[in-house]
UniProtKB/TrEMBL annotation, chain A:
Pfam families: Acyl-CoA_dh_1, Acyl-CoA_dh_M, Acyl-CoA_dh_N. InterPro entries: Acyl-CoA_Oxase/DH_mid-dom (IPR006091), Acyl-CoA_Oxase/DH_mid-dom_sf (IPR046373), AcylCo_DH-like_C (IPR036250), AcylCo_DH/oxidase_C (IPR009075), AcylCoA_DH/ox_N (IPR013786), AcylCoA_DH/ox_N_sf (IPR037069), AcylCoA_DH/oxidase_NM_dom_sf (IPR009100), Mycobact_Acyl-CoA_DH (IPR052161). Belongs to the acyl-CoA dehydrogenase family. GO terms for cellular component: plasma membrane. Its cofactor is FAD. Residues 232-399 form the Acyl-CoA dehydrogenase/oxidase C-terminal domain. Residues 6-119 form the Acyl-CoA dehydrogenase/oxidase N-terminal domain. This is Alkylation response protein AidB-like acyl-CoA dehydrogenase. The keyword Signal does not apply.
From TrEMBL, chain B:
This is Pimeloyl-CoA dehydrogenase small subunit. GO terms for molecular function: acyl-CoA dehydrogenase activity; flavin adenine dinucleotide binding. Its cofactor is FAD. Residues 122-215 form the Acyl-CoA oxidase/dehydrogenase middle domain. Residues 226-367 form the Acyl-CoA dehydrogenase/oxidase C-terminal domain. Belongs to the acyl-CoA dehydrogenase family. SUPFAM superfamilies: Acyl-CoA dehydrogenase C-terminal domain-like, Acyl-CoA dehydrogenase NM domain-like. Residues 6-118 form the Acyl-CoA dehydrogenase/oxidase N-terminal domain. Keywords: FAD, Flavoprotein, Oxidoreductase.
């Protein structure tokens, strides 16, 4: 066991930091530092730069654009990206579909898709959830019926994040409604969003944002070549993907960035005749979150160190639930600290002429108006990617034998 | 002690409940929110008809002479409906200032109009630097002959965009954070030098950022009582907001429990999972604790010992805030994705409860002050 970063790792961190500083467009950095998500153009532009540098998908096998790095080195890169802050490589492409194709895809699928996933030439979205199939994903109803060289897909997906930006979607569909177990009749498809019969409808979340959608499939023709893995064995892909999704959700680097930024903000923000950072209650709440985040950082490193093995064994890692539970709780806790720091000015909604139908003045600072919006939006963290309750069920079963 | 409502109080509750049931469906509410004012003029007129807008004023002034319990009853219903109208601003806050600080002539001029739904008030106190401290006042009031000249900026004035008159705290003398030297002024919103910029609040209500630039008012504009008056009215407002929070929490709990019974996953209602059952039970614990505090607040609203009243109201604000946060968050969590959407009521309860939590001091603000003041149960 060696619990300190080596000289080489520290040098690598420095190299990454300098490269990001030299390559990240100022507007992207500013937008993200303010607490907003990057625009599509910013995401694409930045990921292309990472790709050109060979840093978009370091966790993939070298032959598909990965790096022969230790887990620690990969952690350092992703942490630096998050804590700059810069956009992380698109999770749907790099952490979800990519690893599934590497583990389950055909040679042709790998050749065609993997480079485009890494470079973000194609933007993928995730079509798993349905109105009736959330936590109980295996009960999904979207139907795919084979007709010659095609599947005909009918049904509805929902909560599809950023489908409005997506070129393609990866889907779980039911191919055998008569299978003995629900899980055994599911297949995993990749589908071009331009295929006739696909309709995307926005869902506006409580913070006023448009990031999720409903996606409808009406006799959509999908080539059989777009099946990933074996027909009716899509659940294996799904389980593998979900456990990778969870590891990514700890986002320790991003949380550290939010805390550092909050400390800067709190030096100026009014806290009753003094900056709020000088309020002992606020400070101890903040510090308490930092302590928990430090523990999560160590846990993340431990899980990551195990990841290479997991990838080669195609097995989900149950420890990822720990990261998902605590990581999302801490992100939510940090968002509550921002609300606290904003105080009465946190009541000012973010300026949004489109939603309001009128042009409102800016009467508060950006971070103040975003504090409550982010707090509301981040309630999603403990719901998606397997809710906290579901993670605990998994742990009780897989770890504790209950 | 008697926790039961009287016949008249029950009648008040029933009639308002019925009105809101008819007129405040979630879809109807969306329409009100999108309107020019951001709330419903028609409902405001209906509230006037029910007598709600004149409720707390003395009968001699043209009101009904009701007390804090009636306000609690009404606010609870408004909370359930997520009502958008400026009742707190006009009747609870504006009304409080008129009742405790205005002259008989001012009351005679304003109360009948307020009761009739023809006059709206708002309380302008928060400043960019003040956070939750009512005594942190940079806005100035300078003597101008017999009258006054006001200068300064007030932010987050709830319903300040539609108000006819503004109640404004301003510094007559002393330093920015002195407790002495603060005056409370009643200023027509259309007075020369008042400029208002309206905006939406995070829970979908309306507020304004208001600048006072060389605003001249007469000697009668100054209400009697200064900071103590403002604190008294704020305490009454905390009581009203506590009841509103209880209404929100109760509606959120009901909605959630209904959903737990109907939403099926894994072939059975999600309410059959014990993890969720316990959480729903905890919601009920929270609701009852908050309800008790709302009652304490109604009881203490008329407490003559200002220090005692203050400490109890702090306790109310702390405990309601804590429980409201849990209920609001769990309403979303136990629903799953559906409550993350604008189109569903669930998430809107969290939004309103969050705003209430951050009005007139959050939990930490009152914890700090209350512990300084010796806590709830003073050592003998
Ligand atoms: C903002 C957002 C973005 C999303 N993005 C995507 C996306 O891009 N692609 C995609 O496919 N999906 C996405 N999702 C969907 C997400 O994965 C689901 O919301 C999630 O799986 C929960 O399903 P549900 O919302 O239907 O809630 P339900 O499954 O109905 O759950 C409701 C409540 O019941 C609890 N519950 C359910 N079963 C149990 C049990 N056995 N024991 C105890 N408690 C239980 C849940 O934890 C939750 O609290 C997104 C969701 C949100 C909110």
């Amino acid at each position: 066991m060696e619990l300190r970063f080596t000289e080489e790792e520290r040098a690598f961190r420095q190299e990454v930091r300098e490269w990001i500083d030299a390559n990240l467009p100022a507007e992207t950095r500013e937008r993200m530092a303010s607490g907003r998500t990057p625009t599509k153009a910013m995401q694409v532009d930045w990921q292309k730069r990472l790709y050109a540098k060979g840093w978009a998908v370091p966790h993939w096998p070298v032959e598909w654009g990965g790096q022969p790095w230790s887990a620690i080195k990969r952690f350092i890169l992703s942490e630096e990206i998050q804590s700059t802050p810069a956009p992380s490589p698109l999770g749907f492409n790099c952490n979800m579909l990519g690893p599934v194709l590497i583990a389950f895809g055909t040679e042709e699928q790998k050749k065609f898709f993997l480079p485009k996933l890494a470079s973000l030439d194609l933007w993928f979205c995730q079509g798993f959830s349905e109105p009736g199939a959330g936590s109980d994903l295996a009960s999904l109803k979207t139907r795919a019926v084979r007709e010659g060289d095609h599947y005909i897909v009918n049904g509805q997906k929902t909560w599809t994040t950023l489908a409005q930006h997506a070129d393609w979607i990866f889907l779980l569909v039911r191919t055998d409604p008569n299978a003995a177990k629900q899980q055994e009749g599911i297949s995993f498809l990749v589908v071009d969003m331009k295929t006739p019969g696909i309709t995307v409808r926005p869902i506006i979340t409580i913070d006023g944002a448009h990031e999720v959608n409903e996606v409808f499939f009406d006799d959509v023709k999908v080539p059989v070549a777009n099946l990933v893995g074996t027909e009716n064995r899509g659940w294996d892909c799904a389980k593998f993907l979900l456990s990778n999704e969870r590891t990514g959700q700890a986002r320790v680097g991003a949380s550290k960035e939010r805390i550092r930024r909050l400390k800067l903000i709190a030096k100026e923000a009014p806290g009753g005749g003094r900056p709020i950072i000088e309020d002992p209650r606020f400070r101890s709440r903040l510090t308490d979150v930092e302590v928990q985040l430090k523990a999560l950082e160590m846990t993340t490193l431990r899980v990551l160190a195990d990841e290479n093995r997991q990838l080669s064994q195609r097995k989900p890692n149950p420890a990822s639930s720990v990261l998902k539970i605590r990581g999302t709780e801490l992100q939510q806790a940090i968002s509550e600290l921002y609300v606290m720091a904003a105080g009465p000015y946190g009541l000012v909604a973010p300026h949004d002429p489109e939603a309001d139908g009128r042009n409102e003045p800016d009467v508060a600072e950006d971070w103040q108006t975003l504090a409550q919006a982010t707090y509301f939006n981040w309630r999603k963290q403990s719901i998606y990617g397997g809710s906290t309750e579901i993670q605990k069920n998994i742990m009780a079963k897989a770890f504790l034998g209950l | 002690m008697d926790f039961d409502l009287s016949e008249d109080q029950r009648l008040l509750q029933d009639s308002l409940q019925k009105l809101l049931k008819d007129k405040y469906g979630f879809e109807q509410r969306k329409g009100y929110m999108k309107s020019e004012t951001g709330w419903s003029r028609d409902l405001w007129a209906a509230y006037a008809e029910l007598g709600l807008l004149g409720m707390p004023f003395a009968e001699a002034d043209g009101g009904l002479g009701y007390g804090a319990v009636e306000t609690m009853i009404v606010m609870e219903q408004f909370g359930r409906a997520l009502a958008l109208e400026p009742f707190v601003s006009t009747v609870v806050m504006g009304g409080g200032f008129l009742r405790h600080g205005a002259s008989a002539e001012q009351r005679a001029a304003m109360v009948p109009e307020i009761a009739a739904g023809k006059r709206l008030l708002a309380f302008a106190h928060t400043e960019p630097q003040s956070r939750f401290d009512l005594h942190d006042v940079a806005t100035t009031a300078k003597k101008d002959g017999a009258g006054w000249i006001l200068d300064g900026r007030k932010g987050v004035v709830l319903h300040g965009d539609t108000a006819d008159d503004l109640v404004v705290t301003a510094r007559i003398s002393g330093q920015r954070r002195d407790r002495e030297g603060i005056g409370v002024f009643l200023v027509p919103a259309t007075a020369q030098g008042v400029s208002r910029r309206g905006f939406r609040t995070s829970d979908g209500q309306r507020a304004a950022d208001i600048t006072f630039d060389n605003v001249k008012v007469g000697p009668e504009a100054e209400l009697k009582g200064g900071l103590a008056l403002a604190e008294r009215v704020v305490d009454e407002t905390i009581a009203a907001l506590a009841a509103e929070a209880v209404g929100c929490m109760e509606a959120a709990k009901d909605l959630t429990v209904d959903y737990l019974k109907t939403r099926k996953q894994f072939g059975r209602p999600i309410g059959s999972f014990q993890a969720l059952q316990h959480r729903a039970a905890e919601m009920m614990v929270c609701l009852e604790q908050a309800r008790s505090m709302a009652m304490l607040a109604a009881m203490m609203a008329s407490e003559p010992d200002a220090a005692e009243r203050r400490r109890q109201m702090r306790a109310v604000k702390i405990e309601v805030g804590r429980n409201a946060r849990f209920v609001g968050q769990q309403t979303i969590q136990m629903h799953g994705g559906i409550a993350m959407t604008m189109e569903y009521a669930g998430g809107h309860y969290l939004k309103r409860l969050t705003v209430i939590e951050n009005m007139f001091g959050d939990m930490d603000h009152h914890l700090a002050a209350l512990s300084e003041e010796g806590g709830v149960f003073l050592a003998a």
